[in-house]
Write a structure and sequence with these properties.
alpha/beta
Length: 390
């Protein structure tokens, strides 16, 4: 069903990495949300007013916030598609996250206001009228919201949009809140208990928790979350498949919005290879990564000595020392610089964000073990962070 809708309303819907296609997805999701939520909001507020039911009115106001959110999402997708300019050289794709933040603040504000209104209804309960129309509207609302959740969840996954995924999650929360209102109406009819205000409070709490949950999802990419593991694996596998690449390390991927990536990496090559040949290979890798993965990649060339017996033997020993320390430490850029009185042993250690040793403790432990091998070895250790852990 989703593909049928996309064929009708989203031109070239399969080209999800295209910025214009991405904007069309956002436009389709937003317009669908505006239409459905305005209809639900209008019908619920009218029915809530006629039958003096605060929980239904509260649910209608929640739909109004959803319609407003769809308008903001629509504007956000439009602005995020603007090309880069001198003030924003990396483009405007992060505006999508900002529009999601605005949506979240609207949800939280309305949730707080509904708590106030519902609390007043608890203190001063009033008689609520019952009607079959009321039940029909609530049941239709649940069906429509389930449909919106299904559609937006699929759209969000197709283009990896945090904002549209948040909209899908909000629709699912609306199903829960509207179901609570429906149950309260039935209980009031059967028992005469005045629980309207309590259910309105429950709906408000659901709205607030929904807003907090969505806020967490949107803040993660803004604060800087690790890149997707599949993306990292794709980059690594593609680089390592080139003949002449010995290894790679220090891969860092920056996201400037959905599908807007810049990356840097160190690629190890044999020091005995002609530098012009190695540089030509690096140029080809950068060009191919951009063409195949749409990532702007900058590669730092690391020449590695591979034919020195002392270096190779000591590298193996030090690598075992590092491995035995646990905590998934790894070593790279190992080299020796020999002098008259001592030999510098230079290498980098990559440590995870959570480990049982401080950088100073780790450096001291490794240095002591290397000194046991030869008192004239002078370790020069650089500590690197792993920016790709997820």
């Amino acid at each position: 069903m989703i593909n049928t809708l996309l064929k009708l309303f989203v031109k070239n819907y399969n080209d999800v990495k295209n910025a214009n296609v991405r904007e069309r997805y956002g436009r389709f999701s937003s317009i669908l949300g505006i239409i459905c939520n305005v209809l639900l909001c209008t019908s619920k507020i009218i029915v809530g007013f006629l039958f003096n039911n605060i929980s239904i009115t509260a649910d209608g106001i929640n739909n109004l916030s959803d319609a407003s959110s769809s308008v903001i999402t629509l504007v956000g997708f439009k602005l995020s598609n603007k090309p880069a300019d001198k003030d924003h050289p990396f483009g405007h794709a992060r505006i999508e996250y900002i529009s999601g933040l605005i949506v979240t603040f609207i949800i939280l504000f309305l949730g707080i206001e509904l708590i106030k209104t519902s609390f007043d209804k608890i203190l001063h309960p009033e008689e609520s009228s019952f009607s079959v129309i009321l039940l029909i509207i609530l049941v239709l609302s649940i069906i429509i919201k389930l449909f919106l959740c299904y559609v937006n969840n699929n759209l969000g996954n197709k283009i990896n949009s945090t904002t549209i995924k948040a909209t899908a999650k909000d629709s699912l929360n609306d199903v829960l809140s509207t179901s609570a209102v429906l149950i309260s109406v039935i209980i009031t009819k059967l028992t005469g208990l005045k629980i309207d205000g309590y259910v309105g409070m429950l709906v408000a709490v659901i709205i607030i928790f929904s807003g907090i949950d969505i806020l967490r999802d949107i803040l993660n990419p803004l604060l800087g979350e690790p890149p997707d593991r599949e993306l990292i694996d794709n980059i690594v596998d593609k680089i390592l498949c080139y003949e002449g690449v010995l290894n790679l390390h220090d891969l860092v991927v920056h996201s400037y919005g959905p599908n807007k990536y810049f990356a840097t990496v160190h690629v190890e090559v044999s020091a005995s290879e002609d530098i012009l040949i190695s540089h030509d290979m690096i140029d080809n890798i950068e060009r191919d990564i951009h063409k195949d993965l749409d990532i702007n990649l900058v590669i730092h060339l690391d020449p590695i000595v591979t034919n020195d017996k002392e270096t190779n033997k000591l590298k193996e020993i030090v690598n075992n020392i590092v491995s035995n320390l646990g905590c998934n430490y790894s070593m790279h850029d190992f080299r020796l610089v020999k002098g008259h009185t001592h030999t510098n042993v230079l290498f980098d250690i990559v440590i995870p964000n959570e480990c049982d040793k401080t950088p100073d403790e780790l450096t001291c432990s490794i240095s002591q073990e290397i000194k046991k091998i030869n008192i004239n070895y002078y370790p020069v250790i650089t500590i690197d962070k792993n920016y790709n852990t997820k």
